[in-house]
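I have been asked to look over a protein record a colleague put together. What it holds is a sequence and that sequence's fold in C-alpha cell form. Please read both lines and tell me whether the C-alpha cells look consistent with the sequence. I do not need a full report, just your reasoning and any doubts. This is what I was given:
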Amino acid sequence: MRRIKFMMLLSIILVMSGCQNRNEVNQKYETAIEEVLVLENKKLMNNDGLKREDVGIIVYSEGKYIELIYDLNNEQIESLYEFDTDRNVYEHYPHSPEYLERIQDFLAETSYTENIGLK
C-alpha cells in the first residue's frame, strides 16, 4: 500500500514539473511570437486579424526562426520569420525552396510548438 502511494505521489510530481517546464518555454518565446503575429497581420492587412489560437506556431533554433501556419480563404499559408540580430527584430523570410534549403540546418531544431497537430 505504501508503495502505491509513493508511486502515485511520484507520478503527480513528474506531471507537475513537466507542466511547469512547458510554461517556462512558452514564456521564453511569448514576446517573439506576439511580434511575429503583429507583423503577419500587418502584411495581410486583415481587419479581423489572425487569432493566436487559430495559428500553428513553430519556433526553430531557440527563436532564430518562427513559422506561422494558418488557413486563409481555404488555402494553407506557411509564413516564416527570421530574427535579425543586428536590428533586434523579426523580418519576413521568403518561403521558397532555394531560400529554405539555405537554412535547413536551423529548421531541423524545433524549440517550441503551439497549435500543431490534430484538432
In short: Helices lie at 2-44, 97-102, 104-107. Confidence is low (pLDDT under 50) at residues 5-22. Strands lie at 56-60, 65-72, 75-84, 89-93, 110-114. The CA atoms of residues 70 and 77 lie 5 Å apart.
